[in-house]
Amino acid sequence: MDLPIDREKATLALDGPVNRVRLVSPARAKALEKLGIRTVRDLVTHFPRSYIDLSSVESCASARIGETCTIRGTVHEIKLKKPRYNLKLVEIALVDGTGIIVVTAFRQPWLMDQIKAGDAVAVSGKVTFDYGYKRMTNPFIEVIGGGEGPALTGTVVPVHPATEKLSAAWVRRIVANGLEEIRGAFDPLPLGLRLRYRLMGRQAALTAIHFPATPAEADEARRRLVYEELLYLELFLMQEGAERARDREAVAHIVDGPRVAAFAGALPFVLTGEQERARDDILGVLAAPTAANHMLLGDVGTGKTVVAGFALAAAADSGCQAMLLAPTEVLARQHAEGLGALLEAAGVGCALLTGSTAAPERASITERFAAGELDVLIGTHALLSDDVRPARLSLAVIDEQQRFGVDQRAKLLAKGEAPDALYLTATPIPRTLALALYGNLTLSYIKHRPHDAVLRTTRVLPRELQGEALDAARAALERGEQVYVVCPLVGKGTEERDGKAAGKRSDADAAGEEYHPAVAIEGEADFADDDVTAATREAEVLQKTTFPDFTVALLHGAMGTEAKREVMEQFRDGAVDVLVATTVIEVGVDVPNATVMIVQDADRFGLAQLHQLRGRVGRGTKAAEVFLVSASTREESLARLAAMETTDDGFELAAFDLSLRREGDILGNRQHGASGLKLVNIMRDGAIIEAAHADAAALLDIDPNLEEPDHRALAREVRIAFSGEVVAGG
Ligand code: ADP
Ligand code: MG
Fold first, then answer.
1. Fewer CB within 10 A of the end CB, N or C, for the chain?
2. Model confidence over 646-704: pLDDT tens digits?
3. For ligand 1, atom 12, which residue shows the shortest CA distance?
């Protein structure tokens, strides 16, 4: 091959540091880093979260009330208002020759720095009429000329995820320069595949997804890039699977030993039929002498933990060890205390290891684990660290597996010879898609909660009627039950996490909703003061005025681990009646005596998160009530929340809200840029998933190590996407 040298150079440029791109000053490089962008590749795959279609522009006069449209105009006036202590809004009067529209943007005070009177702006959203004016609330707002952004010539304006420091207009400009930098780079997709599906070339697709001439062109570009992401994922998973299969034979577990029997005897309840079936499935794959890959899918509260307990006991009966990985400290601790106690009672030695385990204790635990004196180690990410070296690991269980990246899973499994893997998840993945995504995976489903007959009702309440929720809470408290009050994360910290979740926005967002990231990662210390203030004030008010005769406590992410643990313990023991919390309680927390949950500003949460949250109640034998309190009057928000009233089933809910089936929820890569998937939506892209699955299998069939000249570029891309390899300096 004698290719012009610049093609090679352009290809390498992809993985060069982003600061080589024109206009990326050190300060902007820093701002880009906040968005997770370090390399040129990161930059050109920093995809728009939506587009404004200027070809369907209305004028202020022609815009119809109640309809969604785009209006182009000039900023007549822009001002910042503070109607409440913790609320800022920016109000813009936009004029266009035919009239005026008033635009209100909540909680985006930085717009004041980005937009000036006289700027040409496009706004896209739903038109309402209030106090004598046509209005838009929280529309997409884009400076399209006059301001600092490049003048746009096309009819479609991309809206890139941006930060306070770097406006969407600037991101757009830098992305354009980034695309310039890689012009001529090789297309890693073999030509045969591109022709088969009539896929655009990569450079064309990247250009078109950022700067499409028409919405249809953006769709075509997306199709190509989604296929590419999925092909790499499939290749990675299949190669990894093949490697595991090549490994030494796996342990054929003893699944009817004394500890398994004792564990069954220690349970305070009888398993449901579905749990029994899942247990039998799992013990079946554990007994086989091959490395198992089993996923247990069940909506929140269906009782997956105890089923996994049988597997852990079987590992101990087989003279081996097991690990149970959980995404948060609260959850790991709960497993250690609940499941751990049952296992101990059955003669299985357990210990807990988390980031906050004191050094001497940690040393003693890892030592005992390495010496084979401990059967089961339960913990958080701390389990992945190098000093955790089991003597004979035969089983790795990953709870809430959607919270972990493929690289973390690989790291855990690498701690044993060929350990069986068991994944627990509440993400509703249809069977065919799960098989396509994970290849040789076996699956069990649990569809019903143990006390399914126990009613859990959900009601959406406007703020004015939240007294009804408080009345229900009081009634529950007087019956000796407990109450959760959940406060959202608001304010500046939101925007920063927003950056981390770049490209992973929900569909609600794309539909013009105010965006609220559905991520609250415990241990992440960037909670804004506002958040803490809101929750703290709520707790104070509830204690002083609403429930002075009960004990109210506060739990939020910015508290120390010890303090958090203490509060959780008091709540579990019943010493605390009302727990006011941010979303740290989102995942897995289990206090069956809690029967009422009030979610404040519920419209600020994603449906998936609300469903996780309400999974915290209705776990015992008592009926449970969930109240979603919202001050929003926006129809879309209320319609979204109403879906929560209509169904209590996470799988059904997912059918309603595509965003629930985001790939990010399956592979958990919103925390891990290394996982390589940015555009895939497993619901919408089912057909492409299946195609990529078949194509990857066919490719590996003829070239298992991807060594043929035609495939080398592919192999490289797969490595970069999934190995967590950091290519650029820094
Ligand atoms: P998830 O599937 O969301 O992880 P958990 O494993 O935390 O759910 O279980 C939810 C609750 O149901 C726990 O309190 C658990 O003890 C309880 N539970 C599980 N199985 C049963 C059962 N068969 N009968 C009664 N309660 C059960
Ligand atoms: Mg669980």
1. N
2. 888 777 776 665 544 443 333 333 333 334 567 876 667 778 888 898 899 999 999 99
3. 303
